[in-house]
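Predict structure. Chain length: 137.
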Amino acid sequence: MNGHCLCGAVSFISPDARDIGACHCGFCRRWGGGPLLAVHCGPNVAFSGADQIATYASSNWAERAFCKRCGTHLYYKFLATGEYFIPAGAFESSDFELSSQIYVDKKPPYYTFANQTPMLTEQQVIQQYGAPDDQAG
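Prediction complete.
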């Protein structure tokens, strides 16, 4: 799967994936103004234009990246595993399906998705994935 930022300075190739996860945590909503709708791409993502990628350590176990030129959000990455979660809108394809939602207890009341998906609360995410610091990051 191919994708790029708004200005084209950064592009990437990712393994084929079709499932979107929605994160409703405060970090993701502050980062993008709404829930993060991201594709779990695993660790094997190849980027070009790496000199235009800026990263921000949003916790001691994850980082977020964006294009220095246009500001497009490029990924959320687990540092321990190198797994990338790339915003669905950055891909050229739109052939995705919303398959899960996390931090549903942190979702504000002003939006709701119609899709029926598995939903995890903050505590369930921490228990399932062992998130340190009890934060999404």
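Summary: The helical segments are 26-32, 122-129.
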